[in-house]
Amino acid sequence: MADFDAVLKFWGPVEADYDNIGNMVLTRLFAEHPDTQKLFPKFAGIGQGDMAGNAAISAHGATVLKKLGEVLKAKGNHASIVKPLANSHATKHKIAINNFKLITEIIVKVMQEKAGLDAAGQTALRNVMGVFIADMDANYKELGFSG
Ligand code: MNH
């Protein structure tokens, strides 16, 4: 699908700085949607002011973006990537689907600022995330998780 390529065009700066950009994504997600921080037991008690320099937040942010990079590069053939991700997020981490919509808008903004994601790229990223989220949701339903 053309949307995957339209986002991959802007992925270079993200890939070059997974730790810092990943940290920004999570720090901003937790700032704009404080309830999302409560879904991460390992980040309990970290204040907004300490997040930018927190190595554990950077490491997890990098993990998320690396996986998203795998999804982008699979260009829609991502069933084998999405399935284990849906399994862990439904049964272990208990992350309702709406949270993926929240992080989508954060990634759009951070990529706009840090990777120059333009209007067409923003639309493409929203489309790609829409496909990813729909596939996560289909897996959630199979698992009986009402996320
Ligand atoms: Mn998420 C762990 C990818 C969105 C909450 N997430 C992981 C792992 C990957 C990952 C990879 C580590 C392997 C695993 O447990 O499956 N997560 C993603 C991607 C997106 C994402 C690609 C969207 C893009 N995750 C979210 C959102 C939330 C969330 C949104 C909640 C607001 N994720 C978690 C939690 C863990 C996790 C909680 C477990 C963290 C830990 O304790 O190590």
Task: List the main descriptive attributes of the protein structure presented here.
147 residues; 76% helix; globular
Commentary on this structure:
The chain is mainly α and 147 residues long. The chain is built from nine helices and no strands. Helix 3 crosses helix 6. It is globular, with a radius of gyration of 15 Å. Manganese protoporphyrin IX binds at residues 36, 39-40, 42, 63-64, 67-68, 85, 88-89, 93, 95, 99-100, 103. Manganese protoporphyrin IX is lined by residues 36, 39-40, 42, 63-64, 67-68, 85, 88-89, 93, 95, 99-100, 103. Monomeric.
Short structural summary:
By secondary structure, this protein is mainly α. Helices cover 76% and strands 0% of the residues.
The largest sheet, given as strand count, sense and whether it forms a barrel, is:
none
Rough shape? globular
Fraction of residues in H or I helices = over 70%
Instruction: For the record, give the distance between the C-alpha atoms at the N and C termini, rounded to a whole number.
Output: 27 Å
> Low-confidence runs (pLDDT<50, min 5 residues)?
none
Chart the SSEs and their pairings.
Blueprint: H1 2-8, H2 12-15, H3 18-32, H4 34-37, H5 48-51, H6 55-74, H7 79-92, H8 98-115, H9 119-143
